[in-house]
Amino acid sequence: MAETLGRPMVAAAAGRPGRQAPQQQQAGLGQSLTGIVRMAVLWYFAMKFFGPKKPAEPSQLMSNLFHKGEPLDMWLYLSEKEKFKDFGDEDALVWHETNIPYAVWEQSSTRSLSLKYHPSEAVKHNGSLYAHVFFARSGYPPDPNDPEYEPLSAFSRTHSVVAFLPKSKSDKKKSLLGSSKDSEGEESVAELKDDTQVEAKDVGPVEWISYWKPNITINLVDDFTRYPHNNVPPNIAGYLNIEPTTGNYFPTIFFNEFWLLRDKLISLNETVAELPLNLELGPISLTKWQLFLQIEQSFQIHRSYGSMLEGEADELKRVFLEGNPYLLGVTMVVSLLHSVFDFLAFKNDIQFWNKNKSMEGLSAKSVVVNFICQLIVFLYLLDNETSWMILASSGIGCCIEFWKIGKAMHIVIDRSGRIPMLKLRDRESYAKNKTKEYDDLAMKYLSYVLFFLVACFSIYSLMYEQHKSWYSWILSSLTSCVYMFGFIMMCPQLFINYKLKSVAHLPWRQMTYKFLNTIIDDLFAFVIKMPMLHRLSVFRDDLIFMIYLYQRWIYPVDRKRVNEFGFGGEDEAQSNRNLVSGDASAAQEGDATTDGDKKTN
């Protein structure tokens, strides 16, 4: 059923929130799946079963003023005033329902309505609009000035229909070449100048944008718990509407916005003529209501500590909304395995490079390039104001990659000039064999391809995309190239394996754990909403590792080549033979001693 209400509109233009970096999306989801939901559920049950409970006398307990199944009437008004008193305004009344059974789980308890609303000029220009919902026992009016009004038979709650959110900084991006293809021409140029001034000063008030909430879900909580006056659970204390004369509470009205995602909000500006409004009324269980409250509280805690960005909670909810339930359950299980494999890969990577005594068969240049790529991603995340947990993880990865350079090459500080410089020198085990020759040859031709692709993509990004600054353009271009063409840096090791006809020098245990993580990332790529560029970067690792597996299959084990700990297969066989001969000699000496003792006796 659709209706047309309200007035026309004019408003301030608002930008859409910018897209997030791919690293933020995937890391945010992993944190949420393994931490936030688990934390919310554990916190809920801990408060429910192990919270402080003080004994109270029956006279000190508060109870619900209404009974289960009691019929209710509902009125919903839309007003620009936070406190509503004009019950005679028929234009403000947008929804009226009668004979709604309270806390009864039947079809008659659920009502819905869809309509079109025409906002006023004030609402268009960042004005406020409130939804005032009133409930009363059937036959009683909600207006306190009505002679038949009964204070103990009516209750209400107010909720804002317009949300005010800070304008995303990505909206301040501009064309670095100064050309704007906006159809508004002079106005867009003026906006670019204003954005440049704000960026240069980096000061000033935060710009807030008003958004329309197209869905309003009203839930009556099925709660008949008798709470002590001095021990109401803190998570629901703010929602209880206590009647002062009797000390009891009215039924709790909950405006459920748990599944209202930010991308569903409609930006309010002067071009909007009408707005959709979907209204829904129904009951909600006490457990489900408290679970929603606990999850939202967990989101707030993570945001306050910087471990979650504003949009990451929506991405988690989107997985539950749009994902298959069975696939979602599998994803939650394998996300835990992802953490385990990630830790094991990290452990074995450190162990391999810590005990490695020879660079024979290993690409030293790939280690240096990996550090550069990791540093580029870290600077890109830092420029986009990523949460500190993701920054810390990326920063630790940079430190580890730099430490690996010290294990693969000699790092020397050159103090001959005015400014001390770091110089890298090849290790003897790397320079005195064919490994360096093959590594240089592979890197030479692959670098030509890589530099050409980087140059082409950077020029394209400069001409057709917008950036905050030249520094942001450099970082975003390099980061995109790392995602798209980073697999090229894995190819020198494949070339070295091909030339040496051996893969015995590779850290297979660490690579196996990383491949298992890649399989999990493949599953996430299907479940999680992410840019196509990042999705393709996940599958490229599968192709490289499959080539590694093929090389391991076609190249037999070379027992003369040393392993990751500096020992060869022949050394191990020789040591085993020495141990066997030593045991045989010890046994012969023992037999000779025994015979001598017998002769003496």
Report what the structure shows.
InterPro entries: CLPTM1. Residues 1-28, 172-196, 572-601 are annotated as: Disordered. The protein has 601 residues and is α+β, with helices and mostly antiparallel strands. 48% of the residues lie in helices and 16% in strands. It is built from 16 helices and 18 strands. It has helices spanning 22-50, 121-124, 186-201, 234-237, 286-304, 312-322, 325-355, 364-383, 388-408, 428-431, 434-464, 470-485, 491-500, 508-527, 532-554, 569-600; strands spanning 4-6, 61-62, 71-79, 93-101, 111-118, 130-137, 154-160, 162-166, 208-212, 215-222, 227-228, 241-242, 249-250, 253-255, 266-267, 275-285, 409-414, 421-426. A 5-stranded mixed β-sheet has the order 1-5-16-10-14. A 4-stranded antiparallel β-sheet has the order 4-3-6-7, with no helix packed on it. α8 (364-383) crosses α12 (470-485).
